[in-house]
Design goal:
The complex is a heterodimer of chains A (322) and B (339).
Chain A lengths: L8 E12 L2 E8 L12 E9 L5 E9 L10 E6 L7 H7 L6 E4 L15 E6 L4 H12 L4 E7 L8 H8 L3 E5 L8 H6 L6 E6 L1 H14 L6 E5 L9 E5 L5 E4 L5 H7 L18 E5 L2 E2 L7 H4 L2 E2 L5 E2 L3 E4 L2
Parallel strand pairs in A: 7-8, 7-10, 8-9, 10-11, 12-18
Antiparallel strand pairs in A: 1-2, 1-6, 2-5, 3-4, 3-6, 12-13, 14-16, 14-18, 15-17
Chain B lengths: L20 H5 L17 E2 L20 H14 L4 E3 L4 H18 L4 E6 L2 E6 L4 E6 L10 H6 L5 E8 L2 E8 L8 H4 L4 H5 L10 H10 L7 E10 L10 H4 L11 H4 E12 L6 E11 H4 L3 H12 L3 H6 L6 H8 L7
Classes of the chains: A alpha/beta (322), B alpha+beta (339).
């Protein structure tokens, strides 16, 4: 990938290994040149050409954190959890991708960078939410930063890298295997932190809510709490939208996002994170009631806008200003 | 065909700066319609852009390269504080060196070459006759601090914005051809601080939207926008620090000389994510063309008249055009008789 072009990257899958019962790790190498270096917390979007349950061709696009050392861009690594209610992307990565295959990825973007001026970093990971921290840790260690990692998982399903992290980090990491009855006590953990500690959380919604609630009770200011949500669009009821300019109707299936349905119908919407945080895909909502699932629009904006990457219809149909 | 930079012109004293026909033809004319409104006119800087246009490469090296680099060193000699980098921006400065050198060597192999052997890099700038071997990331192996070293070899002003807390901070830069702003003054400021106040922009929520957009820019997906103002004489350095030298230029304008002395000053602003530091590089490349040169294109001449005539008063004041705006509109009206 020549750096004077702005194309996506073509990468070759050079290694695949299972790092937990439901998590598979992929090592990716650039096929027309060097990959760009990246910063801790960065992610890429992987395009996965597959097919729906009904046998229709369909390209899934999922965002995955880069989990190797940011100083080493000879390869990228991502880890994919086979989701219980998979929308196709994780099934594709687990069953259809072999070593030697070529994939298309976007260049790295970062919506979850460490706050380097923090006196202390408290990292809280749940399950496959360990991935963005895998790129934090080498940089935090090099910087001699004060940090702790608390990592909870279910050993029968997840728990990738737990053993090697314990070996490398010693006291700086605590692991909690829920399947072995070990519990991360969030209230206790947050109470012990020195003032001004920055908290980073990545994992399932339940963990995020737990941190948010406990932090609020203890009076943590919002500026100290950093989230990377797994904002993969949740499935929902099918609905349809009408495009204001052309009158074209687009059906959105139960297991696809509004953005994916628009793209499948040839409607281009600018987008970046595909997870409700970056704001690139904001689209005018002309009529209908939306079920907003993004973390970007404020209440005022929600009256007249929707983010099709994650949000859906509450009413039977929507009219979009496209 | 791109013109090799050979001339040495001045942007001060005798103002010997001129544009070739080629430079006028490729001038980034910023008015797509007859009225002008401030907006978030950001678009992807898709590379490579149209051949020979100012958008062809990430860094546009044009016929004024030598002249602009000499002007930069004149400014830095007098005022070294026009270049700065806070200590936490060191990695970002090296990101910038990587980005500029790598693309310049690929895009202009006849003028620049870069050889990487692990961390040992060899850079040859044939236009400025600079040749150095250094260790990537080790600032002690460069003849001067990394921001100044690169800044002296690339046209346009540069700022490196540190991204924290959903905001962008002006924590490093080299700024010698600004449209009345100062890196020393803005150092450390957040996005809204260094932009404000712009009439009408804030209430429109423009800054909130722009900031969210900029914070989400990924690596290798640069974006750009055009901004413009007017400058009396082909003066690159219209900084607050030197106001005493140029502030009175506008009193020299007459209906006879205004076409030659008023320059449309267009900034091609480009934002590019730095991969290792996650900083955002903002380059502000200034293109100057006199009203007379621009009006050699009848379409531009008509458009300029309509835009200037319809410019809202708050913008006339904000851009500092109050004193000569009516005289300019009168001069431009010769190209647009029906209006």
């Amino acid at each position: 990938m020549s750096l004077n072009s702005t194309d996506n990257y073509q990468v070759k899958v050079v290694a695949i290994r299972d790092v937990a019962p439901t998590i598979r790790e992929f090592t990716l190498q650039g096929i027309n040149g060097e990959l760009t270096p990246f910063s801790p917390g960065a992610h890429v979007v992987v395009a996965m050409p597959g097919e729906t349950a009904e046998g229709k061709a369909k390209t899934w696009k999922n965002a995955y954190s880069l989990l190797s050392d940011p100083r080493d861009s000879s390869t990228y690594k991502i880890a994919v959890r086979l989701q219980d209610q998979s929308r196709g992307g994780s099934v594709f990565m687990h069953t259809r991708v072999s070593e030697g295959d070529i994939l298309e990825i976007t260049p790295p973007a970062n919506l979850f960078a460490p706050y380097w001026r923090a006196q202390k970093h408290l990292l809280i990971a749940g399950g496959v939410g360990i991935t963005p921290f895998m790129s934090y840790l080498p940089e935090l260690q090099r910087a001699g930063a004060n940090f702790e990692l608390h990592y909870s998982y279910r050993g029968n399903q997840t728990g990738a890298y737990a053993a090697e992290l314990q070996q490398q980090l010693g006291d700086q990491v605590r692991c909690y295997d829920a399947d072995a009855g070990e519990r991360l006590q969030l209230a206790e953990l947050l109470k012990q932190q020195p003032r001004g500690t920055h908290i980073y959380v990545c994992g399932p919604e339940l963990l995020l809510d737990g941190v948010r609630q406990n932090a609020a009770l203890l009076g943590y200011p919002d500026s100290l709490i950093h989230f990377e949500e797994f904002a993969a669009p949740q499935p929902g009821e099918p609905f349809s939208v009408t495009l204001e300019s052309s009158g074209q109707k687009v059906d959105v299936g139960a297991d696809e996002s509004l953005l994916e349905a628009l793209e499948a119908s040839g409607v281009k919407v600018p987008n970046l994170c595909r997870g409700g945080v970056c704001g690139q895909c904001v689209t005018k909502l002309v009529d209908g009631e939306a079920e907003h699932r993004d973390a970007f629009l404020d209440d005022g904006e929600r009256q007249s806008c929707i983010m099709p990457c994650v949000s859906r219809a509450k009413s039977k149909g929507l009219v979009l200003g496209l | 065909m791109r013109i090799a930079p050979t001339k040495l012109e001045t942007f001060r004293d005798d103002f010997s700066y001129t544009n070739s026909d080629f430079a006028i033809e490729r001038f980034p004319f910023p008015f797509p319609q007859d009225d002008y409104m401030y907006s978030v006119n950001i678009e992807p800087h898709t590379l490579p852009g149209p051949v020979d246009s100012v958008y062809e490469h990430l860094i546009d090296v044009d016929e004024h390269y030598l002249s602009e680099m000499r002007e930069r060193s004149l400014v830095l000699e007098e005022m070294p504080k026009r270049c700065l980098a806070m200590p936490h921006m060191e990695l970002a400065c090296w990101d910038m060196i990587d980005r500029c050198m790598t693309t310049m060597a690929e895009d202009y192999p006849e003028w620049f070459s870069l050889t990487k052997n692990g961390d040992q890099w060899h850079w040859h700038n044939k236009l400025l006759k600079i040749e150095d071997t250094f260790t990537f990331g080790d600032s002690s192996t460069l003849p001067m601090p990394p921001m100044e070293y690169m800044g002296r070899q690339v046209q346009g002003d540069f700022a490196l914005l540190d991204q924290r807390d959903g905001d962008l901070f002006m924590d490093a830069g080299v700024v010698t051809c600004p449209a009345d702003w100062s890196i020393a003054f803005d150092a450390g400021m957040g996005f809204k601080e260094w932009h404000g106040p712009v009439p009408m922009a804030n209430e429109m929520g423009i800054f909130d939207r722009a900031l969210k957009y900029l914070c989400a820019i990924p690596v290798n997906r640069p974006v750009r926008r055009l901004n413009w103002t007017l400058t009396v004489n082909a003066r690159m350095d219209t900084s607050p620090e030197t106001y005493s030298k140029w502030g009175s230029d506008r009193t020299t304008l007459t209906p006879e000389n205004i076409g030659k002395k008023i320059y449309l000053r267009v900034e091609l602003q480009m934002m590019d994510r730095m991969p290792r530091s996650n900083a955002l590089m903002m380059s502000i490349r200034t293109y100057l063309a006199s009203m007379e040169d621009l009006c050699s294109n009848p379409e531009w001449a008509r458009r300029l008249h309509r835009v200037m005539k319809g410019l809202p008063q708050p913008l006339v004041e904000y851009k500092g055009l109050t004193r000569y705006h009516p005289m300019l509109v009168e001069w431009l009206s010769q190209f647009d008789p029906v209006n």
